[in-house]
Amino acid sequence: MMTIRWPLALLFAVLLLLPLGLQDYLLHMAIQILIWGFVYTGWSVMGRFGQVSLGHGAFLGVGAYTTALLWNNFGLVPWIGIPIGVAFAVLLALVIGYPCFRLKVVGHYFALVTLALSQVVLLSIVAARDITGGSLGMTPNSVGQSSWLALQFTSKMHWYFVALAVWAFGLWVWVKVDRGMGRAAMEAVSEDETAAAAVGINVTREKLRVTVISAAMTAFGGALFGQYQMYLNPETLSGIGVSLQIVFAAIAGGMYSLLGPTVGALLTIALTEGLRIGFGTTLIGAANTIYGILLILFIIFMPRGITGFFGAWTKRRAATAAATT
Amino acid sequence: MDIYLVEAIINGILLGGVLALLALGLNLIFGVVDVVWIAYAEMVMVGMYVIYWLHAYYGWPLPLACLVAVIGVGLLGILVHLLIIQPILGSAPINQLLATGGLLFFLQSFATLLFGTDFRNIGLRMPIIEIGDIFISFSRLIAFCVALAGAVILYFFLSRTHIGTAIRAISQDREIMGLMGVDERKVYVITSAVGGSLAGLAACLLVLQYDVHPFIGLSFGPITFMICVLGGLGNMIGGFVAAFLMSQIISVGGYYFSIELSYVFAFLFFIVLMFIRPQGILAK
Q1: Which of helix, strand or coil describes residue B128?
Q2: Is residue A295 within 8 angstroms of chain B, CB to CB?
Q3: Do A127 and B258 make contact, defined as CB atoms within 8 angstroms?
Q4: Residue A163 pLDDT more than 60?
Q5: Residue B249 and residue B269: Cα distance in Å, rounded?
């Protein structure tokens, strides 16, 4: 236990002091990594049990758009808007999840049903262009100054600490799920549903539990990202594109370990930014080309992600060291 | 009767033909290799760019450019199988789906890199047929007929040739067929080639009607997976019924509401049907 806690405490200490030495641009990247790291962690809460959802873009979009629309049209502050958005996402997860789990829609079929869901949300946002701005996107009304009430900050420093707190909360949820009894149940379910049901596990309830947690976190992250960017676009917050992006980052980082999804966020954002700076805008698309190739290689050679790969590697080294002494 | 509605229904039928062809290729791979190529529509996009390039840029005659596209995408299908699918055939099924998802990103952004995000048109103007007060686009009619012809050819290939029989047999029982002396790997490669060629053929038909751009795959890729699953695995007739049902929802829904909403209805229809008839609409 202690061996895990010390490095984590050190990491937090570094992260708390980090913004003091960063320029705005690097701070901007750090904020994005933390918010997306939180979302990817949310995805992996269900993904690690073999529940591969290609529909998390739906929850992201519902969270972000509900919050922004309530603010723009009814003046409801995000402190109320975000919980409502999260509640809608949870409701959506229940409406889709319950019949899926009840009727044993699993594997490919579950992936495709959730994929359809993310497209439904994307197209609904585009279709409701009178209030959402359609594919042009929308901007939450600005209060013009830093305000805790409106959750709008002019300084990046504020945002960094908000994002850090939310990200840490995400890790806490992940650990809660990891240490709870539900984990054993879900692992049994992911191995063999019928056998799990036979030993008395309520498969539908266990699956719904992780799905609801996962959807709520994703919606929260989406709302926060919309608040931070002060711009919402249906293509970047819902639909198949961002859904796949979530899945890939979580897998590339490693969805079976606590910091894996965050490593995924770090990797993908650093890669995108690095290539953008390296190639400039002349080679638009270069970043994603390399990204695509890396993803294929990851799935073929490191299906447990970076953290999983190095975790196994250090364990093997420790084992050989123990064997030789 | 409202002639615009009639027009919408006819357009739906014509669209259904092309969607059926796409779903057929995907279904073949899904049924035989047991992999969902999530990048299938992006392979169609590659075919469309090949045709655009050869025809509009280098001035090749259109039929020749189309032939190159069919063969080229067929070869691409083989490459995809050998390089991406074969190494991970033994791992969890969802990994193969995700690996082809990486291919989706790759093809999309590679096309952006080569051609930019401009919409490109091969600049072919086809006549419009007028029957009474109803207008039908000739290019859509051709696409429909060719798609049907393609489906019939595929049917004869699968039912009348030796290798076709092996392909159907593998989709029914892959373990036994190995014992019967069928080389699974060879059948997988051939199936991937045929599936790829069908994507190439679909590219020929779509390039007549739509502008090509790197993200065109996203506009009909998801609907193709839905049709494929709705039709039921390995059920060609079911795939056809599903394609025409979905295309009618899209076309008639687009007439009454908006095109986005019609797709929303189509996806919701898919989700609901997955709960009612998970084995496909024609399942017993």
Answers
A1: strand
A2: yes
A3: yes
A4: yes
A5: 9
Asked if the Cβ–Cβ distance from A50 to B94 is below 8 Å, we say yes
pLDDT at A43: 95
Asked if residue A237 lies in contact with residue A118, where contact means CB atoms within 8 angstroms, the answer is no
- Partnered with residue B129 across adjacent β-strands are B136
Query: Are A285 and B111 in contact (CB < 8 Å)?
Result: yes
- Give the domain ranges of chain A: 24-239
Second CATH level (architecture) for the domain B3-276: Orthogonal Bundle (1.10)
Q: How buried is residue A157: exposed, middle or buried, by Cβ count under 10 Å (0-12/13-18/19+)?
A: middle
Beta bridge partners of B134: B131
- Which residues 6+ apart lie within 8 Å of B142 measured at CB? B126, B205, B208
Interface touch A291/B105, C-beta < 8 Å: yes
pLDDT, mean over chain B: 87
Count H helices and E strands in chain A, helices first: 15, 0
Q: At what angle do helices A239-253 and A286-301 cross, to 10 degrees?
A: 50
The pLDDT assigned to A283 comes to 66
Q: How far is A163 from chain B (nearest CA, A)?
A: 28
* B94:A284 CB<8 A: no
- Extract the residue ranges of chain B whose pLDDT is less than 50: none
Is the CB of residue B194 less than 8 Å from the CB of residue B157? yes
CA of A91 to nearest chain B CA: how many angstroms apart? 16
Per-residue CA distances from B55 to A160, A186, B52, B214, B255 (Å): 53, 55, 5, 18, 33
B163 Cα to chain A: minimum distance (Å): 27
Asked if B38 and B104 count as a contact pair (C-beta separation under 8 A), the reply is yes
Nearest to A288 among B97, B105, B264 (CB): B105
**B99/chain A closest Cα distance in angstroms:** 5
- What is the predicted pLDDT for the residue at B71? 96
- The domain limits of chain B are 3-276
pLDDT band at A2 (very low <50, low <70, confident <90, very high): very low
> DSSP code of A142?
P
